[in-house]
């Protein structure tokens, strides 16, 4: 059963980032209090990076046992290890390096070692299965101006894929061109889906998605909650 989206609108990008950081810490602490291990799915992009920084700098981070958090990614730019453009690199620099995480519980999508993005996607699907195909506690998503989420872009065939957990994406309209992404069924295998969106350039995509229009961001729904965590600029086209 999925529930209607909830909107929380913040004055600006900084207020949004600090609010999401606090919510993130609380959600992980709550998940640990009931289930022991918390599973979270990270996203890429500028807004996410600011949120990660705010988490890393928050005094409240001590509320979470970071050794008992499993970190997954919703998508990845398919690049060599350590490439600054990888979502993994961004998350390690802004968040993970500041926390006492268990390296065995950090699951980046494969780097480009010449094996191809299809093999990387299959390997990630296998890693998720080997981990017991967990339901994620929190899945964070940025939203593109075109309404993409993760690396699921409007009009791309990956939007229709429901029989595998992860797919390769080529010719992405957002560089770099080759990516790996979770599919919609995996994005929905989540207790709480959070869309974290800032900026006027996203306002049309936000309004279209919330009106159940034809954009990828209209699809992901949490099993318990779907939160749209916005700043006023991103919410400016909502009636
Ligand atoms: O690999 C990526 O770029 C992200 O996963 C992508 O889905 C991102 O979250 C959105 O494009 C929003 O990015 P911004 O926050 O930078 O606008």
Automatic annotation (TrEMBL):
Q: Which GO terms describe its biological process?
A: carbohydrate metabolic process; pentose-phosphate shunt
The transmembrane segments are none
Q: Name one Pfam family in it.
A: Glucosamine_iso
Keywords tagged on the record: Hydrolase
Return the EC number: 3.1.1.31
CDD domains associated with the record:
6PGL (cd01400)
Part of which pathway?
Answer: Carbohydrate degradation; pentose phosphate pathway; D-ribulose 5-phosphate from D-glucose 6-phosphate (oxidative stage): step 2/3
InterPro entries from the UniProt entry: 6-phosphogluconolactonase_DevB (IPR005900), 6PGL (IPR039104), Glc/Gal-6P_isomerase (IPR006148), NagB/RpiA_transferase-like (IPR037171)
Which Gene Ontology molecular function entries are recorded, alphabetically?
A: 6-phosphogluconolactonase activity
Please list the reactions this protein catalyses.
6-phospho-D-glucono-1,5-lactone + H2O = 6-phospho-D-gluconate + H(+)
Q: What family does the database annotate?
A: Belongs to the glucosamine/galactosamine-6-phosphate isomerase family. 6-phosphogluconolactonase subfamily.
The function of this protein is: Hydrolysis of 6-phosphogluconolactone to 6-phosphogluconate.
What NCBIfam families has UniProt attached to this entry?
pgl
Per its record, how is this protein called by name? 6-phosphogluconolactonase
Q: Which organism is it from?
A: Kribbella jiaozuonensis
């Amino acid at each position: 059963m999925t529930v209607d989206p909830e909107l929380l609108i913040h004055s600006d990008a900084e207020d949004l980032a600090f609010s999401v950081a606090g919510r993130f810490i609380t959600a992980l602490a709550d998940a640990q209090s009931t289930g022991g291990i918390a599973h979270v799915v990270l996203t890429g992009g500028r807004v996410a990076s600011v949120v990660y920084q705010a988490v890393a700098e928050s005094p409240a981070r001590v509320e979470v046992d970071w050794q008992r958090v499993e970190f997954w990614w919703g998508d990845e730019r398919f690049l060599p290890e350590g490439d600054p453009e990888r979502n993994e690199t961004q998350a390690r620099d802004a968040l993970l390096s500041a926390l006492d995480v268990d390296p065995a519980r950090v699951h980046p999508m494969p780097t480009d070692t010449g094996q191809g993005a299809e093999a990387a996607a299959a390997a990630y699907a296998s890693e998720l299965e080997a981990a017991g195909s967990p339901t994620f506690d929190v899945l964070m998503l940025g939203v593109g101006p075109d309404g993409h989420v993760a690396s699921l872009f409007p009009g791309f065939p990956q939007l229709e894929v429901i029989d595998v957990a992860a797919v390769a994406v080529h010719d992405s309209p957002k560089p770099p061109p080759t990516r790996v992404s979770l599919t919609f069924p995996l994005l929905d295998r989540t207790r709480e889906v959070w869309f974290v969106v800032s900026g006027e350039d996203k306002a049309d995509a936000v309004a279209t998605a919330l009106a159940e229009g034809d954009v990828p961001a209209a699809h992901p729904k949490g099993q318990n909650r779907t939160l749209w965590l916005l700043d006023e600029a991103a919410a400016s086209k909502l009636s």
